[in-house]
Amino acid sequence: MSEYIWLIATYASIGIFALGMAVRVVRIARLPLHLRWELAPVPHERDKHEYGGSFLEEPDWWMKPRERSRMNELLFMLKEIFFLHAVRKNNRRIWPFSLAFHTGLYCLFFMACLLVASAAMSAAGYAAPAALIETPAGILGGAAYLLGSMGALGMLVLRGLDRDLRSYSGLPAYLNLAVLFVLFASGGFGMIIEDGFIGEMQRFINAAMLARPGLALYHAAAIHLGAGLFFLALLPFTSMVHFAAKFFTYHTVLWDDRRMDAAMEKEVGALLGQPVGWKSSHLGADGTKNWIDVVKGE
Fold first, then answer.
1. How far apart are CA 184 and CA 179, in angstroms?
2. Predicted TM-score of the model (pTM)
3. Average of pLDDT values for 6-16?
4. Better-predicted residue by pLDDT, 287 or 140
5. pLDDT tens-digit profile of 26-79?
6. In the beta sheet, which residues pair with residue 68?
């Protein structure tokens, strides 16, 4: 049985991750229509986003075709994903650590992609080109472990020392960062003390792809892979799913400036008819009044 443990753990982690993420994304996608805001700038405004303008400032806007720019949206998203523009703008103190941390994650992801490609080529009998891929994978891995460790440790220390950050950092936030620090630090430690550490990662992926049991791992590799599999299974149940939720935050909340149509009007009407259960006295809600009653003060 022991020779199958790594295979079972690998398949279980991937299965939990895939199922958990699918459930979380479907639940987010099926949430009710968000309160409509007039937020600006909206990047897909072709000529007006730079100064925060909107199609609504055009005379007879409802009679004109919309001019959208998907390229502007793409550039905004790339700047946000790879440079954390919003964090830099709104919280400059944590930005260097957050940027290092996220860059480490991106490098780790691309390293894993290269190792999967290398393992697949090796399994197909192309051992020589598969070995060549290990070099760029090793470079990405070194960058991932260094930047990720610095970022995760810096975020942990900052959250512990800074009163403002500490006030809204619950135990899960610290645990998430601790798990990621162990993941990055164990990988960096493995690269330092074990020759051929990246090659061992490739052989592990190859064994998992071919369902080949009996793989023996050195201690550092075993700790790193254990941390990686635990992180993969944990991720869907934490706030770290924000990497997927951000798509909906931008496209269905902040940038949703669609014109009201009959279907949307019907959905909004149904939502306004729901009873309000909030306990705040200024609302005057009693659990039976709906939103329209509350607004009218009835």
1. 9
2. 0.85
3. 94
4. 140
5. 999 999 888 766 666 788 888 888 888 888 888 888 888 888 888 988 999 999
6. 45
